[in-house]
């Protein structure tokens, strides 16, 4: 890190707005380059960079040492990329299963009963993962540790469980003819 950048970091930490703005301009290409390697989509890259720069702007005064600035800024962008990825995945799951796709004859109680029956009918390896992950809300690594399987196996089994449940709810066995 050059002396000029170190001086800008010190001044920014002390509340000098001009130094902070100059520092963010200097750091933006590095942050963007890191985001390109970390984020999953180009939209996420732009969003993550903007949010990270805003967080750096707001929280620069909390930085304890000048030497920690680079790793601190990269941790911020990394967390933001991961947060955007999780949000995108959650939206994708919600988009896959729309209540509008269900037959019109469903009432809330019918849906709940069919949902419970679908979960109960799952093979044990899928049911365990589904309940731990989606009902009890454990993280994938926690589920993997509890069941003694890999995180990849958790994700695969969870996807399969959700697919089976979705198919069973969309085509109920006792539907009115």
TrEMBL record:
Pfam families: Sigma70_r2, Sigma70_r4_2. Residues 28-89 form the RNA polymerase sigma-70 region domain. Keywords: Sigma factor, Transcription, Transcription regulation. The keyword Protein transport does not apply. GO terms for biological process: DNA-templated transcription initiation. SUPFAM superfamilies: Sigma2 domain of RNA polymerase sigma factors, Sigma3 and sigma4 domains of RNA polymerase sigma factors. One of its GO terms (molecular function) is sigma factor activity. Residues 115-163 form the RNA polymerase sigma factor 70 region 4 type domain. Belongs to the sigma-70 factor family. ECF subfamily. This is RNA polymerase subunit sigma-70.
């Amino acid at each position: 890190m050059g002396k000029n950048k170190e001086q800008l970091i010190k001044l920014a930490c002390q509340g000098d707005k001009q130094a902070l703005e100059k520092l963010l301009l200097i750091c933006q290409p590095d942050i963007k380059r890191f985001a390109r390697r970390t984020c999953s989509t180009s939209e996420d890259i732009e969003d993550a960079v903007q949010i990270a720069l805003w967080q750096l702007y707001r929280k620069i005064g909390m930085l304890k040492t000048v030497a920690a600035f680079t790793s601190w800024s990269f941790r911020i962008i990394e967390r933001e990329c991961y947060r955007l990825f999780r949000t995108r995945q959650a939206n994708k799951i919600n988009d896959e299963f729309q209540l509008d796709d269900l037959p019109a004859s469903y009432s809330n109680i019918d849906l709940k009963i069919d949902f419970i029956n679908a979960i109960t009918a799952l093979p044990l390896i899928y049911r365990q993962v589904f309940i731990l992950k989606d009902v009890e809300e454990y993280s994938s690594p926690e589920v993997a540790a509890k069941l003694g399987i890999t995180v990849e196996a958790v994700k695969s089994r969870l996807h399969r469980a959700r697919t089976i449940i979705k198919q069973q709810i969309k085509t109920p066995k006792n539907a009115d003819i």
